[in-house]
């Protein structure tokens, strides 16, 4: 009965809905009422891309948002400190997690001080300007409706108007039909999970009806059992899960490769199924969960700065260019002070690490290293990824949205000249692309981190020639374009290659159980970060939630309440800790983004540093 109803709804929708897939980019005079199905961009006419934003969807009417909102409110009520309970809190790291932690601590009446080693805030969402004034971003960051804690931050800071919401759909490049796209279209007014089911049913290009039917049953336990079932799949890769439950092989090439590379920059045979199910669970349970938005400008100014201003208005501080050299401990292992590279000693009532896992491991004091809690970190590491910016001499016929390239080399991309107000250009395109997987560490066949920028761009131009077959020019500078025909005219004017050797933690099978709780065994020391234990995994949402949970631990402790529990530690880690020989911490060497776990355009100096501290990147 349910299946019949879904098909009836799909048929009705297909017959009645206007064209939506590329409607934002069509001149008003050319809009006609066409079936709601797969459409291609007209590649024979001049570009007519027009930026068009959509109203903010209702992201508040979900259980996850209500929980996030209630938790946020608790910092001003049940977790609010009296003047006598107010704590000075030193937070190491000014990424989203550190800033979120500080934001909620000031809301709870405390005095956080954020110490950021670099000259820019944001961590993995940081950005900087080149000599031309163009912004270079560490990554292509998209905001989903299913980001309840992030959406809550935007509401609390009063900056929802900085999000540019796009039409509710997913756009995929067609591998076998170069230059064409297909879409999953979400019909307004149809609630979850039916809108997701209809979007898949109405698409006639990616999966057959039989394959769609085969795909559904393995996902039902996720809807019925929820997070318990999702967490139990962490030992399986996406590919393992597919084969265990008899899902069609083609769903891997048609959907899961694109999802895996977008979620964690690795292929499905390396990615934990828990990651995919976590995302799908949000999207299937929240009507607007998959609707996407772009920030209207660079992240440091448009997101990090409002967070900083809120912290400072509340009595906290955010200090850049202040790297920590060492966490100095007393004989009993408690923290004595932070020793900064400047020689300054920072003493506080509470300390929070909001550093990436790979940096934390280099900073662990000798007295902590045999504790099972900290030995868990050996099982976690950041995944390499490359972010590209490519400026062309004319407009490409792209879409005003995120596009899943389904390319062997590329994950997702967007024409930022039409998706983002600050980067808007009516005459020329600037593509931002995620190059993944880019290393054997991430499951790739080629170590692109070790390649030159020119080699990476040439490989990318070859992929773009497939995506834009009638537009990319045959350019002698880029051998991969040599087969382009005479109609292609678009030439690359400029590019930037940002390498992030250690990005979000690698969510390979079996890692989730090693992600630590925010509570640690060290008195007055708390852990934040998207890699710590929280259900939104490695993402902007996970970073905000990780910082928020850390603030909850500190605020709860300040009230004199019982300590929040430490997550159970696996027995193999307990055994390994007994055999571990403690040594002096390696510490962080060098300056800049690469030294502190961020992304950068590799030059001779920071490439030499990377070779020294993370030689596997060049293996």
How many helices? The count is: 20
- Residue-averaged pLDDT: 89
DSSP strand tally = 20
Oligomeric grouping of the chains:
single chain
**Describe the biggest sheet?**
7 strands, mixed
Strand order of the largest sheet: 8-7-16-17-18-15-19
What general outline do the C-alpha atoms trace? globular
Residue share in helix: 25-40%
> Structural class, judged by helices and strands?
alpha/beta
What proportion strand?
5-15%
Low-confidence stretches: 1-46
Radius of gyration: 24 Å
The first-to-last residue Cα distance is 56 Å
Description:
The protein is built from 20 helices and 20 strands. It is α/β, with parallel strands linked by helices and 619 residues long. β12 (335-340) and β13 form a beta hairpin. Residues 1-46 have low confidence and may be disordered.
Key features of this structure:
alpha/beta, five-stranded parallel beta sheet, seven-stranded mixed beta sheet, 619 residues, 32% helix, globular, disordered N terminus
SSE blueprint and pairings:
Layout: H1 2-16, H2 63-74, E1 88-92, H3 96-107, E2 111-115, E3 127-129, E4 135-137, E5 143-144, H4 148-157, E6 163-165, E7 169-173, E8 181-185, H5 194-202, H6 209-215, H7 220-225, H8 227-232, H9 238-244, H10 250-264, H11 273-285, E9 292-295, H12 299-313, E10 317-319, E11 324-329, E12 335-340, E13 345-346, E14 350-353, H13 357-363, H14 372-375, E15 385-392, E16 403-404, E17 410-415, H15 416-419, E18 430-435, H16 453-467, E19 492-500, E20 525-527, H17 540-558, H18 571-579, H19 592-595, H20 604-613
Parallel strand pairs: 1-2, 1-14, 2-10, 7-16, 14-20
Antiparallel strand pairs: 3-4, 5-9, 6-9, 7-8, 11-12, 12-13, 15-18, 15-19, 16-17, 17-18
């Amino acid at each position: 009965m349910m299946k019949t109803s879904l098909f009836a709804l799909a048929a009705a929708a297909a017959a009645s809905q206007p064209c939506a897939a590329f409607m934002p980019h069509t001149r008003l005079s050319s809009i006609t009422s066409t079936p709601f199905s797969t459409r291609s961009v007209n590649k024979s006419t001049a570009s007519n891309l027009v930026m068009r934003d959509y109203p903010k969807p209702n992201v508040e009417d979900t259980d996850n948002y209500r929980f996030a909102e209630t938790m946020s409110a608790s910092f001003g009520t049940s977790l609010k400190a009296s003047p006598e309970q107010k704590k000075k809190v030193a937070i190491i790291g000014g990424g989203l997690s550190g800033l979120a932690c500080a934001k909620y601590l000031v809301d709870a009446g405390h005095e956080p001080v954020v110490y950021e080693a670099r000259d820019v805030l944001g961590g993995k969402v940081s950005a900087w300007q080149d000599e031309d004034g163009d912004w270079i971003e560490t990554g292509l960051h998209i905001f989903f409706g299913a980001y309840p804690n992030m959406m809550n931050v935007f509401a609390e800071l009063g900056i929802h108007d900085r999000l540019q919401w796009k039409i509710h759909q997913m756009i995929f490049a067609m591998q076998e039909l170069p230059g064409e796209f297909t879409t999953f279209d979400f019909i307004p007014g149809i609630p979850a999970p039916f809108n997701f089911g209809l979007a898949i049913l109405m698409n006639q290009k990616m999966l057959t009806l039989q394959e769609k039917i085969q795909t559904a049953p393995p996902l039902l336990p996720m809807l019925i059992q929820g997070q318990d079932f999702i967490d139990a799949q962490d030992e399986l890769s996406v590919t393992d899960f597919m084969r265990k439950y008899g899902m069609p092989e083609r769903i891997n090439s048609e959907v899961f490769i694109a999802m895996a590379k977008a979620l964690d920059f690795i292929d499905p045979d390396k990615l934990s199924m828990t990651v995919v199910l976590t995302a799908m669970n949000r999207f299937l349970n929240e009507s607007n969960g998959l609707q996407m938005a772009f920030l209207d400008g660079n992240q440091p100014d448009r997101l990090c700065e409002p967070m900083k201003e809120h912290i400072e208005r509340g009595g906290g501080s955010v200090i850049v260019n202040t790297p920590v050299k060492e966490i100095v401990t007393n004989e009993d292992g408690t923290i004595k002070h932070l020793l900064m590279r400047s020689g300054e000693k920072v003493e506080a009532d509470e300390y929070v690490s909001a550093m990436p896992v790979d940096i934390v491991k280099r900073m662990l004091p000798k007295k902590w290293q045999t504790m099972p809690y900290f030995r868990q970190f050996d099982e976690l590491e950041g995944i390499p990824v490359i972010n590209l910016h490519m400026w062309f001499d004319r407009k490409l016929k792209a879409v005003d949205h995120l596009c899943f390239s389904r390319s062997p080399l590329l994950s997702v991309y967007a024409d930022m000249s039409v998706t983002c107000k600050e980067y808007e250009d009516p005459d020329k395109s600037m593509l931002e692309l995620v190059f993944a997987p880019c290393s054997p560490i991430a499951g790739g066949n080629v170590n692109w981190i070790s390649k030159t920028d020119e080699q990476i761009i040439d490989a990318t131009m070859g992929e773009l020639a497939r995506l834009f077959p009638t537009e990319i020019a045959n350019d002698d500078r880029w051998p991969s374009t040599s087969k382009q025909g005479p109609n292609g005219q678009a030439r690359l004017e400029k590019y930037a290659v940002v390498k992030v050797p250690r990005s979000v933690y690698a969510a390979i099978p079996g890692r989730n159980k090693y992600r630590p709780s925010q509570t640690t065994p060290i008195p007055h020391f708390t852990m934040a970060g998207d890699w710590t234990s929280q259900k939104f995994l490695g993402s902007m949402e996970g970073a905000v939630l990780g910082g928020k949970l850390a603030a909850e631990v500190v605020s709860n402790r300040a009230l004199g309440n019982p300590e929040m529990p430490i997550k159970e530690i696996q027995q193999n880690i307990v055994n390994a800790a007994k055999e571990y020989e403690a040594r002096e911490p390696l510490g962080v060497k060098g300056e800049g983004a690469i030294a502190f776990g961020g992304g950068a355009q590799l030059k001779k100096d920071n490439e030499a540093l990377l070779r020294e501290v993370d030689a596997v990147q060049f293996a």
